[in-house]
Amino acid sequence: MNKALTNRGIDKIYTDSDFEKLLNSGKKLRMYFGVDPSGPIIHLGHAVVLKKMAEFQKMGHTVILLIGDFTGMIGDPTDRNAARQPLTREEVLENAKTYKEQAKKFLNFEGENPAELRYNSQWNDVLNFKDIIELSANFTVGQLLERDMFQKRISEQKPISLHEFLYPLVQGYDAVMLDADIQIGGTDQTFNMLAGRHLSKALKNKTNIVITCPLLEGTDGRKMSKSYNNFVGVEDTPFDMYGKIMSIIDDLIIKYFDLLTDISDEEIRDIKKKIESGENPRDYKAKLATEIVKMLHSQEEANEASAEFDRIFKEKQKPTEIEDFIFAGSMNIIDLLLESGLVSSKSEGRRIVEQNGLKIDDALITDIKTELSASGQVLQLGKRKFIKLKNN
Amino acid sequence: MNKALTNRGIDKIYTDSDFEKLLNSGKKLRMYFGVDPSGPIIHLGHAVVLKKMAEFQKMGHTVILLIGDFTGMIGDPTDRNAARQPLTREEVLENAKTYKEQAKKFLNFEGENPAELRYNSQWNDVLNFKDIIELSANFTVGQLLERDMFQKRISEQKPISLHEFLYPLVQGYDAVMLDADIQIGGTDQTFNMLAGRHLSKALKNKTNIVITCPLLEGTDGRKMSKSYNNFVGVEDTPFDMYGKIMSIIDDLIIKYFDLLTDISDEEIRDIKKKIESGENPRDYKAKLATEIVKMLHSQEEANEASAEFDRIFKEKQKPTEIEDFIFAGSMNIIDLLLESGLVSSKSEGRRIVEQNGLKIDDALITDIKTELSASGQVLQLGKRKFIKLKNN
Questions:
Q1: Is the pLDDT of residue B86 over 80?
Q2: For A261-288, how does the pLDDT look when each residue is reduced to its tens digit (9 = 90+)?
Q3: Please, which contacts does B263-267 make with residues 24 or more away whose CB atoms are closer than 8 Å?
Q4: What is the ipTM score, two decimals?
Q5: What is the distance between the alpha carbons of residues B165 and B142, in angstroms, rounded to a whole number?
Q6: Using one digit for the tens of pLDDT, what is the confidence trace for A110-141?
């Protein structure tokens, strides 16, 4: 068994003690990762942290996935420049529902050393005003204003809502209530995790360790985010996942290899050199996509996704299996796109058609007034969406 | 009945509407004054506000004395430059106990239009974290930092504890829960009262009115404060009260007349002229002291206090009635001062004796080792404290 965490996937470790020594001291340590359930999907950004936690669990320590169902109601100001609308409890719980299933791809919730799943509403719901006053007395306004994001707001003369100052308090209290030895999360959570460290020290005289993991950018190089639609969900179908990885910008190939695969450092350096010397990045993306689909699905599904992808994009063929869309009579093309579920609104449909994104039996359709009747044609929207128009 | 509040005792009125018109609109208005029960005594500083409230109650409106028993546990950062230690609930309730009795000297808690006595723990105790987050979302950090006192702390590089930012929130919520039309308080409460105005507007779309009253300095000209021992309590004995007023610095005579008595503006102007033209301020202080004792006790007690004061200080005589302190054998002078209750510690006793503050039968005693036996002597500590030493 590997007795040290690998350095891969770690940005910085905040510790006062000899971390490696502590890891192997025989003491069962408690590591927690808090996720903000503002969306229903765990994506590859979370995966960087979850992979690290899996390593830690394999060493025999306790890992805890904390659903910030209480926190979600405040909203995390971390990556926003404007005050964020709090979610309702119902929205938060709906989002949290599938998290355990998704996290199972990395963590073991069964067996001798099961991962814990916790909800931070458990202890935050029962705090009263007096408790909060006592907790908040452990922080100064100055400490909070130091936060990068708040400094940015101030310099842009944008308001900071007082409730946003309460967020580090919650996260800090989570660390205390979980009796965490180690907090882990993305670098964007550094401030909040250090707040947890501060509060653990103040309330329990316990110095916990903070591990930050690099943030993984989305396929287009911007921050991975639902609102940019540039994320890869860990439950995406093998084919979708493969396709999305094939679409990442070239600059991210090495970072994805580094943070998401177990390919050796040596081999990654070699790939880097080859790309820099002019080899086609596409081949390495294919390797990367295969590795990631293998990790999150299986080798077999990775192979199938790869073959299918090649069929469609290299050989310009249609997929082996295309779903039928069955209707009678004739239908306007935009209505059809909406009813078949290929688009989520008529305006999206119109936009794609007008931007040359629609083909029927390989012929471009650009007139949004086109009427179609079903007679076995194959409709292709964008690069990867196909349906067959059938009469019932 | 006087249909307008007099201008005396008002610093500023924050209003969007025609205040006089509103006062006489026939609507029964709700005015509240929040007191921070950090000490057990209502002093002449509070009296300025309570006198104003009494006027208002006589006009037929509702007056509410709010005991900040919840707030007291946070501590009001208003007049402190360092973070303040919160009081316990028990300390706060102990202090609040006597408030109604003291306030009765101004407000009528009985009859057809009784004053209300409320405790702000009633609604603040039941707030949970989510409620507080929602309330705090109505304030920005920028609004709070604008507060003078916080600006001062920042410029002096002294920390502001986060819990102090929650204070205006409480006061604001008080105004909402009391459905206040008018908030009244000292000018040092302006910021908090405006927070109440802001929150009433945000939560109830109700624009309440804020009235600030000038702060009354203590006898020595500094802020009236328990820690400076320069305050006059509304329940001080007539003689103590009279003596304390006689001890105020000359610069305060006119302000005391203005804020605490019903002597006409004209007459006050006249007194001011006479003092400025060289008349002995002592005579006007005597008039002031008589007025204030009359207001808080009775005309008769005012007359008695005045006569007694003159006996002792003008005619250098001892008081008409001196309490006995009975003991047997002999006793060290410092122990005696402590046991008789004239001083609250031996060190205080030693200090006073060494500073020539002790006489026995008019003879100065400066040796702290003096042993006394009781044989009817009169012991005088400072100017106004007397006991007779008696053997039982």
A1: no
A2: 999 999 999 999 999 998 999 999 999 9
A3: B263/B291, B265/B8
A4: 0.73
A5: 11
A6: 999 999 999 999 999 999 998 898 899 899 99
Instruction: Return the bridge partners of B136, or none.
Output: none
Mutate which: A91, A128, A133, vs B, most B CBs within 10 A: A133
Within 8 A of A168 by CB-CB distance, chain B residues are none
Burial class of residue A391, CB neighbours in 10 A (0-12, 13-18, 19+): exposed
B169 contacts A161? CB cut-off 8 A: no
B106, B54 Cβ separation under 8 angstroms? yes
pLDDT at B81: 46
Q: How far apart are CA A266 and CA B310, in angstroms?
A: 101
Q: Is residue B183 within 8 Å of B196, Cβ to Cβ?
A: yes
- Residue B53 has which token pair? 């409230």
Strands (E) in chain B, as ranges, are: 12-14, 30-35, 62-67, 116-119, 182-186, 209-213, 323-326, 330-332, 358-360, 363-364, 371-373, 378-381, 385-390
Q: Do A160 and B140 touch (CB under 8 A)?
A: yes
A134 touches chain B (CB under 8 A): yes
Q: From its phi and psi, is residue A373 left (phi > 0), alpha (psi between -120 and 50) or beta?
A: beta
pLDDT tens across B42-59, in order?
A: 999 999 999 999 999 999
Give the closest-approach CA distance of B194 to chain A in angstroms: 16
Nearest to B226 by CA among B42, B33, B9: B42
B351-359 own/partner pairs: CB under 8 Å, 24+ apart: B352/B381, B352/B382, B357/B381, B357/B382, B358/B333
The Cα B282–Cα B269 span in angstroms is: 17
Contacts of B125 in chain A (CB under 8 A): 128-130
Burial class for A31, CB neighbours closer than 10 Å (0-12, 13-18, 19+): buried
| Minimal CA separation from B97 to chain A, in Å | 21
- Nearest Cα residue to A309 out of A244, A224, A391: A244
Residues from chain A contacting residue B166 (CB–CB below 8 Å): 132-133, 136
